[in-house]
Amino acid sequence: MTGELAIQIRDLKKNYGDVEVLKGVDLNVERGTMLALLGPNGAGKTTVVKILSTLAGPSSGSVTVNGYDVVRQRDGVRRSIGLVSQFVALDWMHTGRENLIMLGRLHHLSVANAKVRAQQLLEQFDLVEAGDKQVKGYSGGMKRRLDLAASLLVTPPILYLDEPTTGLDPRSRATMWAAIKQLLAAGTTILLTTQYLEEADQLADKIAVIDGGRIIAEGTAAELKQGVGKERVELVLASGGDFNRARQVIEGDGLQHDEDTRTISLVVDGAAHVKRLLDTLENKGLEIESLSLTKPTLDDVFFALTRRGNEPTNQSTDDNHDEEVGAAL
């Protein structure tokens, strides 16, 4: 089974002193696919990435990356991975091209090959015009694209993207998404952490939700949405009188009313349910102004799964560790 998996995590635990940050994480990432790891701040996402990158060791459990153990075979792991962290790691006084050539040489490319590869990456990430300008003059989006380009100088079989589009404008984010899709199409395995749920929805083959140091849900976006609930119908009544009368006759799960907008919404179970609802309103002589159907979103999944109530957590402590990790990466 391990041969089919790019990443295999079993009962991973991580303690910082008396604080248990990871409490038994299990994850599989198949080769050539993307897994998106979602969770609130302090849930342990960056700690997982740090261990997968050999920048920290597990307190217990087993972790293999590309068949290499992260504790006993760290060199093999490091040869197998690329990493784009939350913080851009570039020399801002050099040009984009100089950064890429220098990093290419660190990857043992010849000068000629480093120059060729730098040009290819500048073209791929739409940075040709900016390639010979100092990085300190780049926009945030350009820096992030250059950072991703740098991680691909020698294309790794496995790539970690730790919130790669944080702070980007929509155009830069779209450019990054296109580059990530190209990597997936070429067979690269990707582990993504992100604050943008639509990013996971659009890109990931599977999604895992981590909270309180544990994986609390895993599946495709469609599977997770289905697990949260069914479709909702939202009705806007034509008048205040119709709204008040409709409140008396409409029943159902998750029923919500908004008198200011004359809106009634509830959970429905397919088209037949909607038809029965409309027939009821018509039989009562009630007129609707508009109707809309909405499916559960990944936002609904996230909020439903990570609702913590009033229980105390170690979030602030874990956040501090995550900040330290980000700086290290």
Automatic annotation (TrEMBL):
Q: Which Pfam families match?
A: ABC_tran, DrrA1-3_C
Stated family: Belongs to the ABC transporter superfamily. Drug exporter-1 (DrugE1) (TC 3.A.1.105) family.
- Entry's localization field: Cell membrane
Q: Name the major location.
A: membrane
Please list the residue ranges annotated as the ABC transporter domain.
7-237
- Report how it sits in the membrane: Peripheral membrane protein
Q: Which Gene3D superfamilies match?
A: P-loop containing nucleotide triphosphate hydrolases (3.40.50.300)
Per UniProt, the keywords (alphabetical) are: Antibiotic resistance, ATP-binding, Cell membrane, Membrane, Nucleotide-binding, Translocase, Transport
Q: What is this protein called?
A: ATP-binding cassette domain-containing protein
The cross-references to PANTHER family, in alphabetical order and at most eight, read:
ABC TRANSPORTER ATP-BINDING PROTEIN, DOXORUBICIN RESISTANCE ATP-BINDING PROTEIN DRRA
Please give one Gene Ontology molecular function term for this protein.
ATP binding
